[in-house]
Design a protein that fits this description.
The structure holds 2 protein chains of 2 kinds. Chain A is an all-alpha fold. Chain A contains 7 helices and 2 strands. Chain B has 8 helices and no strands. Chain B has helices at about 1-25, 35-60, 65-90, 95-125, 130-160, 165-190, 195-220, 230-244. Classes of the chains: A mainly alpha, B mainly alpha. The interface between A and B is medium-sized, with 22 and 26 residues.
Chain lengths: ~160, ~240
């Protein structure tokens, strides 16, 4: 009984660890250029400013505003992932995995806030996922061209 | 009814993904470097997808022939998983020959230990020699694969091996082994309770799906790391060119 309980605890822990590592490895993917900046500017996303505020410990960030900002950016980016320059109009399986990962970290952020533990690491992870989504959207949009301009350049020049 | 439909869906999903892994290996030209993986996936498809289904259709679910065949193929698959883990160790130690000599001895020791521990069951169950030994052996081998896989992951981090493909392949194996081990432990803890019995047919294929999806991602999306031998050869030719 004891051995089975031990195996259950270790295996469950390892299962979560491996899933998290897969997500981290997907997030480490190198893009040919930084596409996220144009998407952030075009859609007025705020996760970059949230990241700066968290990295700069001096600037205070209100918790309700922070969660709302991240949630709004997440909704905007997941919508764009599905609909912007996406012929299939559906998420790929790695995007689905990262969406679940985002939701889990978001839940851990709320738990950390209740328990009064440090929230910055969770916030940085969330912004990293949002940056990846923005990069993917940017990469897709970049393939669509309007004359000599790419779609992201076109959006910026509006 | 709905449960059966979902189980069938998961099962067919696994067969399709096994095919996708093989096609991806061939189309990305990685099957030469990942021969072990190619063989394991082919074995998985051949035994789990084709042979088991054929035996099930011929003899039926409740037949002893199907039960024996199932556990025998399970041992073959466990051995395949162990050899695949060994091939990943070999790749991780490609630039560290001395370390590979040590790792090789550890792998042989682990395999002998698994046989020895499984053989202990024989002393208690002489009457059911065949079935008890085989079930115990495959379960112990899967659990030792989980431990070895974790050791391999730690080793990759320690040696700072910059090989995303290998890292993802190892993570995929980890998802499968950890999931399987957790469900088997849950099944043992609940003493075969109906809840655990109903859950296992869904969760076990879900883990296999997770492993195959991670492998497909590793094959299709990661950059191809140059094999160590090739790099060494290239370096040696440079040295020769400079010397000339």
């Amino acid at each position: 009984m004891f051995v089975a309980a031990l195996i259950l605890i270790i295996s469950t822990g390892l299962f979560g660890f491996y899933l998290q590592t897969v997500c981290q490895k997907i997030l480490r993917r190198q893009f040919s250029q930084e596409f996220f900046q144009s998407i952030v500017n075009a859609n007025r996303l705020e996760f970059l400013s949230v990241r700066k505020a968290v990295e700069n410990l001096n600037s205070p960030v209100e918790y309700p505003r922070l969660t709302l900002t991240l949630k709004c950016d997440f909704l905007a980016l997941t919508y764009l992932l599905k609909n912007a320059a996406n012929i299939n109009q559906r998420y790929t399986y790695e995007e689905r995995l990262l969406i679940v990962y985002f939701k889990l970290i978001f839940a851990s952020l709320i738990t950390r806030h209740w328990l009064k533990l440090g929230e910055s690491s969770a916030v940085l992870k969330l912004t990293k996922i949002l940056e990846y989504f923005a990069n993917v959207v940017g990469e897709r949009v970049n393939t669509v061209r309007f004359g000599n301009l790419t779609a992201s350049d076109y959006l910026l020049n509006l | 009814m709905g449960g059966q439909f979902l189980i069938r869906g998961l099962q067919y999903g696994i067969y399709i993904l096994e095919g996708v892994v093989c096609v991806s290996l061939a189309s990305h030209g990685r099957w030469r470097r990942l021969k072990g993986l190619c063989l394991y996936v082919t074995l998985l498809f051949g035994l789990d997808g084709v042979a088991r289904s054929a035996v099930l259709n011929y003899f039926g679910w409740d037949s002893s022939q199907f039960r024996y065949f199932y556990w025998l193929t399970d041992v073959v698959l466990a051995l395949g998983a162990f050899l695949l883990t060994c091939s990943f160790f070999r790749r991780a130690c490609a630039r560290e020959e001395k370390l590979w000599f040590f790792v090789r001895k550890v792998l042989v020791f682990v395999f002998v230990l698994v046989i020895a521990v499984s053989a202990l069951v024989l002393t208690r169950h002489y009457s059911k020699l065949f079935t008890y030994f085989i079930i115990e052996f495959s379960q112990n081998l899967y659990f030792s694969c989980l431990i070895l896989n974790t050791m391999l992951y730690v080793m990759i981090q320690q040696l700072a091996i910059d090989d995303d493909e290998l890292g993802l392949l190892v993570c995929g194996m980890g998802v499968q082994f950890a999931g399987e081990a957790a469900f088997l432990a849950l099944f043992t803890l609940t003493a075969g309770d109906s809840f655990a019995r109903d859950l296992i047919p869904f969760l076990s294929p879900a883990c296999t799906l997770g492993m195959l999806l991670t492998w497909i991602y590793a094959i299709t999306k990661t950059t191809q790391a140059a094999p160590a031998r090739e790099q060494r050869g290239r370096r040696a030719s440079w040295v020769e060119a400079i010397a000339d």
